[in-house]
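**Fold tokens**
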Amino acid sequence: MATTDKKTAVKVFTFLSDELRAGNGDILLPGSEQLSGVVKRYQVGGENRMHMHPTEDHTFYVLQGQGTFRLESDENEVVVNQYEGVFLPRGTNYWFTSTGDKTLIILRVGTETGSDRIIDGQLVKSHRTPESGKFIPARELPF
């Protein structure tokens, strides 16, 4: 069995409290370079520019509301309702918007290192920082 130089700490956290459900913007969940989670919240709007992640598979799970995804072109539309999800393999062009009557709350799961994206032919580096989202406080376990 291979060992690593640095083991990632186990963390416990709450991510869908009433306070978080009421806001807008991204909530960054504890993760690692191989796994990241983001709770995305939209009263209106969404990720409304066609883009793709060339090195990242990722999945969106709708926890509340409804999102309409455009896949590969604006003409290919799929509606994703509460408790439904959509898997996007790396290289899939997409954008989405909130289209329900409630705040759209999505759990996005992917990789931190692969979250760079291409928009209008230009590489845009990942920007998951405290300035671009709120980090969930986590309690590290002592074992």
Q: What stands out?
A: The mean pLDDT is 84.
